[in-house]
Design brief:
Length: 394
């Protein structure tokens, strides 16, 4: 689950990382009020940043500076409602603009192969890190955190020196360790700071100083671990969740949309993948991955069918159920119920084996469903049905 920059920054602050203060605004008037407060506190400029769950906001015109409250309000009006990569901006972050001296990249990611948290840094921050990784992989420094002790002091120092941050050693070490701590404390898959920046600040007492701060934050949390952390589920941004994904989550169905034409309804992730493979082998393309899980009742089957039918690309549906805890007759009832509510006619091939398969077969035959004895047979029939559906329209 991706979370917004402002929420990600809160998780960083909780680990003691230096993040300049910010406010979140939802209207141009709120942007103005936040900017007013920032200017009153001594800011020379404010930055207004679109809060959307996609990267590259800067390039897309979603990050802008303003020199006074009028300009901040105008920029707020411009950015709020703007579309970035298909997502409408509904809120912005407002902060005193930093006077950036240098930008770095620093991130903690899960290295599944090594089964460790990997800290990655680059002195070429600000720009897209994927580009640096592709063109100059040696410009990215990698350090694996200790699996139990987290990032050790010497490892953090190694990263700091490698990035040329010897002049900010203590701060850099604190940030690197805090980043890994934030990753572990929240069961995150990714905690990214881009840019981590040396900024120039004017202080009444100390004069001009340079310090290291986190100007942007991107955090992705492990969905399966959300239950372990009070409050993290609340950070899900429902504004940006795809309606189909939301419905699937509410029903407890694992659903991933794909580009093909054969809708698949299966119980069990392994069986779902096998089913997709067999659809491909029969010459078709799966429209989705869908796992209704174990022990699904008729209403869940009907909900899964609605998810599949919402996809206009679906030309045929393949139902493949291996009855263990899941009862075949329950699934059959669900399919019959779902077809009664079906808004458009889509051919369906059903294969149910295992618990109560005979009863399921009887129900389905009575309801005139097309059934198949083997999975290969079912995949072939579904692909053929999709082809003839395409043929009819062509
Ligand atoms: P992203 O494009 O979605 O990654 O958004 P960022 O927050 O990283 O902003 C993109 C770029 O805008 C940064 O790399 C900076 O160059 C610039 N930027 C962001 N915040 C500030 C700021 O406070 N002051 C200045 N001068 N530039 C900023
Ligand atoms: Mn960024």
């Amino acid at each position: 689950m991706k979370i917004q920059e402002a929420d990600a920054k809160r998780l960083l602050v909780a680990q003691g990382l230096p993040v300049p203060p910010w406010e979140v605004a939802r209207t141009p008037e709120e942007v103005r009020a936040a900017a007013d407060r920032s200017f009153a506190a001594g800011a020379e400029q404010v930055v207004v940043k679109a809060q959307v769950l996609v990267g590259g906001r800067g390039k897309a015109g979603g990050v802008k500076l303003a020199a006074n409250a009028d300009e901040a309000e105008r920029i707020g009006r411009e950015i709020l409602g703007m579309e970035i990569k298909g997502i409408t901006v509904r809120k912005v972050l407002v902060a005193a603009a930093a006077d950036i001296v240098r930008e770095f990249y620093l991130a903690a990611v899960l290295d599944r192969a090594a089964r460790k948290v990997l800290l990655m840094g680059s002195a070429e921050g600000g720009v897209e890190i994927e580009q640096v990784a592709a063109e100059r992989p040696e410009a990215i420094v990698r350090v694996h955190a200790h699996p139990i002790a987290g990032l050790l002091d010497w490892q953090a120092r190694q990263m700091a020196f490698a990035l040329g941050l010897a002049g900010h050693l203590k701060e850099a070490v604190g940030i690197a360790k805090g980043l890994v701590a934030a990753m572990i404390a929240n069961d995150a898959d990714l905690v990214e700071i881009n840019p981590l920046a040396i900024v120039r600040e004017k202080h009444a007492s100390e004069g001009v100083i340079e310090r290291l701060v986190c100007l942007d934050a991107k955090v992705s949390l492990d969905d399966s671990a959300l239950a372990r952390h009070a409050g993290l589920e609340d950070l899900r941004d429902l504004d940006e969740e795809d309606p189909t994904d939301r419905a699937a989550r509410a029903e407890g169905i694992s659903f991933i949309k794909l580009d093909g034409t054969i809708g698949c309804m299966v119980n069990g992730a392994g069986l779902a993948m096998t089913t997709m493979d067999l659809v491909k082998r029969a010459g078709g393309e799966p429209a989705n991955f869908l796992d209704i899980g174990g022990g699904a009742r008729a209403d869940k089957v009907a909900a899964a069918m609605r998810l599949i039918l919402e996809d206009p690309n679906v030309e045929a549906i393949l139902v493949n159920i291996f009855g263990g805890i899941t009862r075949g007759d329950e699934v059959a009832h669900g399919l019959i119920e779902a077809r009664a509510m079906q808004s458009r006619e889509v051919p369906m091939v059903v294969r149910i084996v295992g618990t109560n398969a005979e009863e399921a077969g009887r129900l389905l035959r009575e309801a005139r469903f097309e059934t198949a004895a083997s999975l290969d047979d079912a995949a072939r029939k579904a692909v053929a049905a999709a082809r003839s559906a395409q043929g009819v329209r062509a």
